[in-house]
Amino acid sequence: MSSEWKSKISSLMSDHKFLLSHSWRLLIWEKPFFPIITFLSVTIFFWIIAMSKASVITTFAIIGILITFIDFIGPTVYPSLVPQFGSQSESDYEAACGYLALPFKLIAKGIDKLIELKQRQKAILSGAVAGVLLLSSLLGRVNNYYLCYLASVIFLMAPGALKKAGINIDDSSSSGRSGSISSPGGYGGTTTTGYGSSSPYAGGSSFSPSTSSTPIKPSSGTGSTIGDDAKTKSNDDDD
Q1: Which regions in the chain score pLDDT beneath 70?
Q2: Contacts of 210 (CB under 8 A, 6+ apart)
Q3: What contacts 22, CB < 8 A, 6 or more positions away?
Q4: Is the CB of residue 189 less than 8 Å from the CB of residue 183?
Q5: Which of 75, 79, 102, 217, CA to CA, is 20 to 30 A from 133?
Q6: Whole-angstrom distance, CA of residue 27 vs CA of residue 17
């Protein structure tokens, strides 16, 4: 499920590899001052919203306009910034797509668990849903923008914090990333991951057997016995 969402996001955001790869380096704290930049950026953004006293609809409309502008102008600007897209940037892009797919993976898995729980233990499901809704009603008393601010800070600071703790949040290694080969085909290029099509592990149609430098020799005893039998049979026929 996670790889499916990751593939969809990777295909959808293929025009913004430059932006996502550099954003991922910022989120994993590649440099010591990167977490400060992330925290200050989120704080200033929500501070501007709080000072302007914009409504939720207005805030989402402004964010949508910014995303639309970046989606339109970005692909024409990225090649002038970095003409070639290297293998390391490709890996950062794939990791960013994997992290963006994580919420969708958790939501899909949660829905599957709810359906399974409803079929088996409906009473427990009803109690759990009632408890979550009660907790949500209590959290509703808190300023919604403050909750969004906390959620944004946690989501954007988590990759760097988990990396410092030695926890790998990108599960692409389980899908064969260790054997991946990236082809720098520019922005929006294709990438071949895993073993090639000629490998039997990829289910390819062709397979190259391994050749050995040492030829296989038949046993000397067996060969001489066969040869003697053939000669004896030939002499009998002549007689």
Answers
A1: 1-2, 83-84, 169-239
A2: none
A3: 92
A4: yes
A5: 102
A6: 15
The answer to whether residues 139 and 40 touch, using CB atoms and an 8 Å cutoff, is no
Residue 192: phi and psi, rounded to 5, are: -100, 120
Q: H-helix or E-strand containing 55?
A: none
What is the pTM (predicted TM-score) of this model?
0.62
Cα 66 to Cα 42, 132, 153, 156, 188: the distances in Å are 15, 34, 20, 19, 21
One DSSP character per residue, 61-117 reads HHHHHHHHHHHHHHHHHHHHH-SS--HHHHHHHHHHHHHHHHHHHHHHHHHHHHHHH
- At residue 30, what is the residue type? E
For residues 169-179, b (16+ Cβ closer than 10 Å) or e, as one string? ebebeeeebee
Instruction: State the CB neighbour count (10 A cutoff) for residue 164.
Output: 11
Percent of residues in the chain assigned helix, strand, coil, to nearest 5: 70, 0, 25
Interacting residues of 85 by C-beta distance below 8 A, sequence separation 6+:
17, 18, 21, 184, 185, 186, 187, 189
CB 197 within 8 A of CB 123: no
For 53, other C-beta atoms within 10 Å of its C-beta total 7
pLDDT tens digits, one per residue of 36-87: 999 999 999 999 988 888 888 888 899 999 999 999 998 888 888 876 677 8
